[in-house]
Amino acid sequence: MSHDNKLYQELLKQKDEISRQKKEIIESLEYARLIQTALLPQPSSIHKALHDNFILYLPKDIISGDFYWISEQEENILFAAVDCTGHGVPGALMSILGITSLNEIVSEVDDLKANRILNKLREKIMKSLHQTGRGGESKDGMDISFCIYNRKTKELQYSGANNPLYYVR
Q: Which residues, 6+ apart, have CB-to-CB distance to 43 below 8 Å?
């Protein structure tokens, strides 16, 4: 076998290995997307809480650092639109941390105030990521718009981190 032919055969072998690994990675990401999507609110539960709504969710990658969240607490509807730092796997992991943290916080608080919930979320994320708030640490976090709408009083509370509120009547 000539030297060129050996190189060519080795190249084909490496190409096949790369293709196999790529397939495994994509299959893993697709499965991760199923898990991430399962954590998002179902359209039926959103429509039940907020009749006139739409969700624009167009992840850039297979998995995403973006998520939306909703919870009903008596006469209150709590909802959020969130953009986590990072794309792909790091962003998706942050989104899962954000969803589970919001669910925990809302189940534990008695006084529903948007700013307090957002502060508790910040504390929980920092604690989970072992951040102290000092310089030199990773800047992992979330840009979030968080609202609480009271159906009885028609009052809307808003608190945000790097996301303004646009209110249209």
A: 55
Q: Under CATH, to which class is 41-161 assigned?
A: alpha beta
pLDDT for 65 equals: 93
Domains of the chain, residue spans: 1-39, 41-161
- Contact between residue 94 and residue 86 where contact means Cβ atoms under 8 Å apart: yes
| Residue 117 to residue 84: CA distance in whole angstroms | 17
Do 50 and 79 contact (CB within 8 A), yes or no? yes
pLDDT by residue (tens digit) across 101-112? 999 999 998 889
Q: Do 81 and 144 touch, CB atoms closer than 8 A?
A: yes
Portion of the chain with pLDDT greater than 90, in percent: 69
Q: Is the dihedral of CA 48, 49, 50, 56 positive or negative?
A: negative
How many alpha carbons lie under 13 Å from residue 149 in its C-beta half-sphere?
12
